[in-house]
């Protein structure tokens, strides 16, 4: 049974360009050219190549998620959010652990920018997908289940006016129940069957994540570390279009 089209499947995949330089990121972009996926730029690439690389992605028509996970005092996050929004990115994020005033400040920063064709989607990181239940309880010192913490952060983000959250695919159903179906879920921790776990802890396969109702899935190393990145991405898209 075909669930979604190839174009819809590709649009749900955010390829994480975790590279040390723009030239290395460009090599990957060349390999996957023509596949209409979202592009995620994180700290490694942004700190090395800066706003100009992000602007060049936008000039070439990519949908861009700038994943800088801001977590600072409200005034600083407000300014950071204004600067990020001015770059014209489609999505960016803050840490929900910064609290509601900080998240509201991020929204104020976005709204302070004049002349945007469309404001970016603003989302909050709940619990990193590398965090296990045991790590959260024993090391970080947060009691209760990871799911309960994720839901609490998601509700806080929604109340602060944000558009969605970053969480693991296994929390998507509970987030949608608590915050509504239009509250977006962006899920890293995606591993095709047999792929290396690396440092991820709370994972699902692409088709399992789709079944949970995730809006976007962030995928890095299963594509970027593959011998043939294009084939790896195409195989993920194929899995999404043919899941039952
Ligand atoms: O909770 C989070 C938040 C962000 N990420 C980012 O997603 C990608 C995942 O890369 P993989 O290589 O597929 O593990 C990476 O850029 C992280 O910074 C996350 O993994 N978990």
TrEMBL record:
UniProt-annotated binding residues for substrate: 18, 40, 67-76, 129, 191, 200, 220-221
EC number in record: 4.1.1.23
This protein's UniProt keywords: Decarboxylase, Lyase, Pyrimidine biosynthesis
Catalytic activity reported: orotidine 5'-phosphate + H(+) = UMP + CO2
Record SUPFAM superfamilies: Ribulose-phoshate binding barrel
Active site per the UniProt annotation: 69
This protein's pathway: Pyrimidine metabolism; UMP biosynthesis via de novo pathway; UMP from orotate: step 2/2
Classification via CDD domains: OMP_decarboxylase_like (cd04725)
Domain Orotidine 5'-phosphate decarboxylase: 12-236
Broadest EC class assigned to this enzyme: lyase
Molecular-function GO term, any one: orotidine-5'-phosphate decarboxylase activity
Keyword Lyase assigned: yes
Domain of life, per lineage: Bacteria
Function, as annotated: Catalyzes the decarboxylation of orotidine 5'-monophosphate (OMP) to uridine 5'-monophosphate (UMP).
Subunit details: Homodimer.
Family: Belongs to the OMP decarboxylase family. Type 1 subfamily.
Name of protein: Orotidine 5'-phosphate decarboxylase
Species: Paenibacillus septentrionalis
Gene expressing this chain: pyrF
